[in-house]
Amino acid sequence: MRMVDQPLCLDDFEALARAKIRQDYWDYIAGGAGAERALAANRAAFARIALRPRVLVDVSACTAATTLLGHELASPVVVAPTAYHRMSHPEGELATARGAADAGALYIPSIFSNYPLEDVAAAGGAAPRWQQLYWLHDREAFGAVVDRATAAGYSALVLTVDAPVIGLRLRDARNALTLDADTLPANLFAAQDLLTTRSEGSSAVATQSLQAFDASITWDDLAWLRDRSPLPLVLKGIATAEDARLAVEHGVAAIVVSNHGGRQLDNPIGTLDILPEVVEAVAGRCPVLFDGGVRTGHDVAVALALGADAVLVGRPALWGLAVGGAAGVTQVLRLLQTELERVMALIGRPTVESIDASAVRRA
Ligand SMILES: Cc1cc2nc3c(=O)[nH]c(=O)nc-3n(C[C@H](O)[C@H](O)[C@H](O)COP(=O)(O)O)c2cc1C
Ligand SMILES: CCCCC(=O)C(=O)O
Question: InterPro entries attached here (predicted)?
């Protein structure tokens, strides 16, 4: 692998992070489900779609600034929910929250954070934050997390719906991945439960989620969540037009088109290829967010042109965290913003709103 001193792009951050994160944790972060076809497809999809540059447009003042559910953001790049940030850095989600705040970005901490959601909220200060949720078997424990997020100043709940069970993560099974005592989820579960749930052919992480997640919930259960909290509800993990329509009919505030970073269903299609059908089905009735394989400002522009209102980055934020703590997260987000603004100038679209369908050509 090429040696990198000064990271100039996200690939450089990945190379630097890899050298800092222990192998079984690295595999958990980098890996996908099954043969990792979905993981590869997410990246491959970007290679098939080209931008259409317009010239002689005034691009002397390009800005990536945008608004999402009332939040003013420096760019349309949001920090995706990812579990266990202490795998990447001892300050974990506290550093991620600070780093995102310094970049003017929205951060969505995972319910599987290594620091309690109240502490993560405090670390982010006045910056916007949404709380990610998995629907837990234990309805009272689940409700308690919802109440805590509502009380701690989170401004939306992001329910992840593509993980009724966890995907088949072969890397984790081969590594018999278990979490160290300092990397346990802080919002839930007794530490001891986790350390003792290792089972053959599986991993502690997989076993834990099988026990914790309620695989029986349906669209009808969303009413319970809406009764429990007044916060806007975002559904993450929508991958068909049918479900996008149902989500809108159920009054969600936004949806996230996602295949969970290729970690769940090992489908040989990238989320970018799914985005247009979802955008068409939603027809402007709520914001559509997108994630999966966004690694450059160019990628961000392509997703926006295909109809996304914002994109999430998962692994790249963890690379920044591993490389430089809070400052590393800020650097990764600023790098994407700078790259996006350069691409905006080069395609003659000086604002986020101006990056419309005419900005892409499909090969
Ligand atoms: C290490 C890791 C942990 C993740 N944990 C969660 C999680 O707790 N909740 C969730 O909704 N998504 C989780 N995801 C999925 C991300 O939110 C996001 O959909 C995905 O990482 C986007 O793809 P990208 O990594 O290519 O940017 C996780 C992803 C990774 C890589
Ligand atoms: C119990 C696993 C939750 C984290 C997660 O969503 C992921 O690893 O993708």
Answer: Aldolase_TIM, Alpha-hydoxy_acid_DH_FMN, FMN-dep_DH, FMN_HAD, FMN_hydac_DH_AS
Residues flanking ligand 1, CB < 6 Å: 28-29, 42, 80-83, 110, 112, 132, 160, 236, 258, 260-261, 263, 291-294, 312-315
**What's the one-letter identity of residue 257?**
V
Report residues whose beta carbon is within 6 angstroms of any ligand 2 atom.
Answer: 83, 112, 163, 166, 205, 208-209, 260, 263
Q: How many folded domains does the chain comprise?
A: 1
Distance 108 CA to ligand 2 centre (A): 14
Range of the domain at 251: 10-350
Phi first, then psi: give them for residue 359, nearest 5 degrees: -85, -5
Which ligand has its closest atom nearest to the C-alpha of 264? 2
- Helices 297-305 & 315-347 angle (0-180, nearest 10): 70
Cα of 83 vs centre of ligand 2, distance in Å, is: 6
Kindly give the distance from the C-alpha atom of residue 192 to the centroid of ligand 1, in angstroms, as a whole number: 25
**What CATH number does the domain containing 77 carry?**
3.20.20.70
CB–CB of 298/52 below 8 Å? Answer: no
pLDDT digits (tens, 9 = 90+) for 82-94: 999 999 999 999 9
In a domain, 268, yes or no: yes
**Complex ipTM:** 0.99
361 domain-assigned: no
* pLDDT tens per residue, range 239-269: 999 999 999 999 999 999 999 999 999 999 9
State how beta strands 71-73 and 254-257 pair: unpaired
The verdict on residue 1 lying in a domain is: no
Task: Establish if 53 belongs to a structural domain.
Answer: yes
Annotated active-site residue in 71, 85, 260, 298: 260
